[in-house]
């Protein structure tokens, strides 16, 4: 073919090739002469934000290293089609961690998914976008000693991150959210395209009993309590992730960002002796060759609440005695690395209902297949938007409850202790079998502000051996009492007039719950992880001897090393952690730019 515009065609082809050349699949593909200002470890929720924001300055060169796979390659529909949310767990897109035996859960081992893919856990999670209460961020400011982390001071980053979008069918969302608290950011969020009878009953309940079950117009407004419509990270008929919203646009338009896939950072390297960590060592397997790269300015850890503390310990940063026990020479003694692990537990209760839910759809392979076929043709229909969980409620113990006399673990009096989500199908707990007939409503119960603290521990100097993960579920009296109280509250809630004629009868296991002992047994038999680990490299004041990072997210006692992910959060969050991590990452990008006088 002969083009009339050879120079223009050659230039365009060159730009396409340059964009493609930024995506590398093996460390030897990185040019030996290539120098980077920043190396980011982990292309997850935070890492993609940092990479995209830093490379807005064309003078900056960034290497982003991801151990996992691409989000738009083989089997990518599993993680991108909204209807299939959760299907990536236990697959090639998952690190496939497992906890230690949980004493509070009858000794059960719990699967512990984390994203092994571009976008990290934002690519495999339940897609819920709930920022939590304003008090959550004010607590972050208080713990860190930096008022810039407070809700009011973070508002510009909140609006910079996210944008409300209409569902695929353009169903009106008027009266279901507050447009004033949503911005014009790259992350797309939205509400359900389909309203079910159960959703109407939730809203009717708030109208009947507004003092007991208040309506919350927008659970992303900073008001942390009440019942309302649930925002999910769905836009333009697909899951919106940190990869789709931040990383891919940057890769497609810039030449100063290199992405290295399928490559694990095995340790941080002290490049100038002492405690300066500006180098990384990488490998693709335990038997593969090692390669090293150096950052001129900083290494930024965004490997998550499991990966970040594990990598710190592999590098000699952490509790010295523990490192010595597995043959790792301690370089920097930071006892809180891997400590203070917090997570939130979840279990569901189910009721047969008089009305249409999605139970029949999910138990009918023909209908399910037809929905996916429709989506494949034009990205419409039930597969194109979140429909399973549309309404949610955040509640707390009464403020004068004796349970709170010792210490209230919530971020403040307007922050929740427990949460209910209303699922339009029979959602079985692990070990339960879903009925194949009838219409069912499930309600999940989450202990939102747990007091149990676990830990993450290294067991081998090999980076390819998983650490031990112990969330220590239900190891405090507060947590089990809160879960029991939440279940009793839920049973009372569904007995209010708004649910008359809809709720028929509980599932057999739920019908058997009467005494506190029976409810506690149900909890310990069926509770699972909500997959919200935090605090394994938590933030603290500059003057505090504890903690892992200071208010600037720089690792204490080290030079050239910063952490930006959920591991720095001081405790389990009042909302869903992906929203808070996005906001933290947006501000962290500005902190880094300011530190190095970048535009």
UniProtKB/TrEMBL annotation:
Q: Is Signal among the key words of this record? A: yes
Entry cofactors: FAD
Q: What is this protein called?
A: Aryl-alcohol oxidase-like protein
Which keywords appear in this protein's UniProt record, sorted alphabetically?
Answer: FAD, Flavoprotein, Signal
Q: Which family does it belong to?
A: Belongs to the GMC oxidoreductase family.
**Ranges for the Glucose-methanol-choline oxidoreductase N-terminal domain?**
304-318
Whether Signal counts among this entry's keywords is yes
For this UniProt entry, the molecular function terms from Gene Ontology, in alphabetical order, are: flavin adenine dinucleotide binding; oxidoreductase activity, acting on CH-OH group of donors
Q: Which organism is it from?
A: Mycena albidolilacea
Q: Which SUPFAM superfamilies match?
A: FAD-linked reductases, C-terminal domain (SSF54373), FAD/NAD(P)-binding domain (SSF51905)
| Domain of life from the UniProt record | Eukaryota
- The residue range of the signal peptide is 1-21
Q: Where does FAD bind?
A: 117, 265, 577-578
PROSITE patterns recorded: GMC_OXRED_2
């Amino acid at each position: 073919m002969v083009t009339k515009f050879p120079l223009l065609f050659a230039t365009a082809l060159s730009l396409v090739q340059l964009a493609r050349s930024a995506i590398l699949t093996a460390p030897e593909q990185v040019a030996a002469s290539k120098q980077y200002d920043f190396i980011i470890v982990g292309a997850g929720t935070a890492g993609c934000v940092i990479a995209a924001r830093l490379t807005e300055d064309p003078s900056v060169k960034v290497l982003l290293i991801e151990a996992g796979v691409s989000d738009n390659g083989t089997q990518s529909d599993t993680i991108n089609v909204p209807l299939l949310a959760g299907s990536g767990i236990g697959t090639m897109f998952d690190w496939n961690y497992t906890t230690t035996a949980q004493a509070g859960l009858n000794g059960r081992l719990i699967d512990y998914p984390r994203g092994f893919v571009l976008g990290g856990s934002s690519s495999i999670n339940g897609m819920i976008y709930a920022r939590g209460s304003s008090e959550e961020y004010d607590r972050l400011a208080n713990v860190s000693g930096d008022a810039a982390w407070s809700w009011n001071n973070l508002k510009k980053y909140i609006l910079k991150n996210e944008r409300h979008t209409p569902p695929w069918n353009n169903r009106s969302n008027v009266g279901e959210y507050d447009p004033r608290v949503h911005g014009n950011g790259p992350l797309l969020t939205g509400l359900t395209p389909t309203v079910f009878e159960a959703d109407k009953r939730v809203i009717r309940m708030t109208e009947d009993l507004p003092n007991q079950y208040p309506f919350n117009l927008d659970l992303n407004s900073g008001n942390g309590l009440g019942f309302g419509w649930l925002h999910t990270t769905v836009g333009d008929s697909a899951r919106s992730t940190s990869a789709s919203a931040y990383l891919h646009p940057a890769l497609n338009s810039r030449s100063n960002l290199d992405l290295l896939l399928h490559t694990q950072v095995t340790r941080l390297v002290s490049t100038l002796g002492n405690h300066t960590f500006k180098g990384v060592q990488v490998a693709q397997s335990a038997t593969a060759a090692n390669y090293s790269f150096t950052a001129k300015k900083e290494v930024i850890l965004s490997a998550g609440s499991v990966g970040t503390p594990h990598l710190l310990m592999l590098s000699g940063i952490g509790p010295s005695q523990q490192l010595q026990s597995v043959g790792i020479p301690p370089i920097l003694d930071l006892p809180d690395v891997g400590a203070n692990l917090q997570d939130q537990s979840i279990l569901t209760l189910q009721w047969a209902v008089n009305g249409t839910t999605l139970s029949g759809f999910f138990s009918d392979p023909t209908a399910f297949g037809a929905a996916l076929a429709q989506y494949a043709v034009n990205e419409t229909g039930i597969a194109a938007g979140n429909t399973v969980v549309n309404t949610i409620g955040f509640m707390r113990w009464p403020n004068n409850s004796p349970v709170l006399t010792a210490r209230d673990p919530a971020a403040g009096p307007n922050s929740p202790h427990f949460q209910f989500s209303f699922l339009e199908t029979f959602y079985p707990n692990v070990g339960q079998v879903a009925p194949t007939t009838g219409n069912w409503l499930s309600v999940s119960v989450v202990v939102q502000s747990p007091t149990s603290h676990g830990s993450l521990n290294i067991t081998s100097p090999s980076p390819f051996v998983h650490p031990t993960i112990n969330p220590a579920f239900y190891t405090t009296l507060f947590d089990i009492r809160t879960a029991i109280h939440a279940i009793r509250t839920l049973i009372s809630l569904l007995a209010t007039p708004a649910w008359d004629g809809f709720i028929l009868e509980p599932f057999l296991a739920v019908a058997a719950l009467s005494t506190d002992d029976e409810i506690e047994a149900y909890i310990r038999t069926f509770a699972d992880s909500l997959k919200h680990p935090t605090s394994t490299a938590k933030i603290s004041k500059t003057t505090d001897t504890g903690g892992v990072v200071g208010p600037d997210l720089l690792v204490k006692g080290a030079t050239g090393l910063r952490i930006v992910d959920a591991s720095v959060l001081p405790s389990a969050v009042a909302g869903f952690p992906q929203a808070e991590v996005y906001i933290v990452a947006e501000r962290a990008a500005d902190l880094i730019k300011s530190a190095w006088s970048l535009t």
